[in-house]
Design brief:
The structure is a single chain. The chain is α+β, with helices and mostly antiparallel strands. The protein has 10 helices and 12 strands. The strands form 3 sheets. Strands 2-3-4-11-5-6-7 form a 7-stranded mixed β-sheet, with helices on both faces. Helix 1 packs across helix 2 (about 25-40). The protein is globular, with a radius of gyration of 20 Å. The model has no long low-confidence stretch (mean pLDDT about 95).
Length: about 350
């Protein structure tokens, strides 16, 4: 398993994307987004996505350089069409617009349809937090890629439907970012490519029985990813259902269905709030600081060295990987090397 320095991985990812038909600026933006996900330990949203992105370009399913079309706009609303451009590009553009509107009106709601995979949702929460904004994002799979069965069911009826909430804080943004399923589909894909078993509690086979085989998710008929919630999966499924409605129906996009009407992508619902227009910026910051201090000073159980809050694990992982390099399993690394050979891109040494 190689450990690749982050800067070299960005250069390699950028070169791969450029060789696959992406402009230099957009290739670097997408590459930096993917490597940032790797740095934070979210390898399912990292450079392993590049082959899937580039395979979509000649099919017309991913369109480099696509414009962000504004369908409707008011003082506090942006309804946008991504025209099947790179999700990292389009979601960042949308978030920029929402931040600007929230500064003026206090709150801004944005939706995005016809977007390719936008990557790690927490990235856009961090973007908003850097502007001292509170944010909420959620996405569905644009009516494709069913992965999660309702409790008691044996066939998939929802995507993994992640949700993220971000709050600015001087020690680093508080970012809650997780799928409404027991794991992200990309993490199952990573295990499959690596030839590894999945942990207990992730998957059910097509008969609704627990399995550790990642191939079961992609079988015919397929298995499913469990909703999150442990022995109360109805909670995770209920949240996933609401995400599907907000991201798919409210956005003007597409909800999940038996036969998809387009390729897999993301419909997005986003909310950005400026605390200065609500309870007051100084009041908000003071209350958040006090709350975080109160939680961090909680008495710790034996063997626990510190209390971690949302965003802490990612920052700790990033610190280690910045100094030691990004580990990539042999299966996913070899897949990238095969793409590099095909595109005549030299691999990093």
């Amino acid at each position: 398993m190689p450990n690749i320095p982050a800067d070299k991985l960005v250069q390699f990812a950028t070169a791969l994307l450029q060789a696959g038909g992406v402009s230099a600026d957009e290739a670097r933006l997408v590459a930096k987004s993917l490597v940032a996900a790797n740095l934070m330990g979210h390898d399912s949203h990292g450079v392993m996505r590049i082959p899937y992105y580039l395979e979509g370009v000649p099919k017309g399913e991913v369109k480099p350089g696509a414009e962000l079309t504004i369908v409707k706009e008011t003082d506090s609303l942006v309804q946008a069409d991504g025209n099947w451009g790179f999700g990292q590009t389009q979601a960042r553009r949308l978030t920029e617009r929402l931040i600007a509107k929230a500064k003026k009106s206090g709150v801004a709601v944005g939706t995005l349809v016809h977007s390719c995979h936008i990557g790690r949702l927490g990235e856009y929460c961090e973007q908003a937090a850097a502007a001292d904004m509170v944010s909420l994002l959620m996405v569905n799979t644009h009516g494709a890629a069913r992965r999660v069965a309702p409790p008691g069911g044996t066939a998939p009826r929802l995507g993994t439907n992640p949700i993220a909430i971000g709050v600015p804080h001087p020690d680093g943004a508080l970012v809650m970012d997780f799928g409404t399923s027991a794991t992200a589909e990309g993490k199952v894909r990573v295990k499959r490519i690596a030839g590894q078993k999945c942990p207990d509690g992730w998957l059910l086979d097509n008969a609704g029985k627990p399995t550790n085989d990642p191939n079961s998710l992609y079988g015919e008929p397929p298995g499913t990813i469990r909703p999150f919630g442990g022995d109360q999966p109805h909670k995770g499924f209920a949240l996933g259902l609401m995400v599907e409605i907000f991201a798919g129906a409210l956005s003007g996009g597409v909800c999940i269905r038996e036969t998809p009407i387009n390729q897999i992508g993301n419909c997005v619902f986003a909310l950005v709030v400026d605390p200065n227009h609500v309870g007051g910026g100084e009041h908000f910051a003071r209350e958040v600081r006090g709350l975080i201090e109160f939680i961090r000073t909680c008495p710790k159980a034996n063997g626990v060295s510190e209390i971690l809050l949302p965003g802490d694990p990612e920052r700790k992982t990033a610190a280690v990987r910045q100094s030691q390099g990004v580990p990539i399993d042999d299966g996913n690394w070899n897949q990238l090397l095969k793409f590099a050979e095909r595109l005549k891109v030299p691999a990093p040494t």
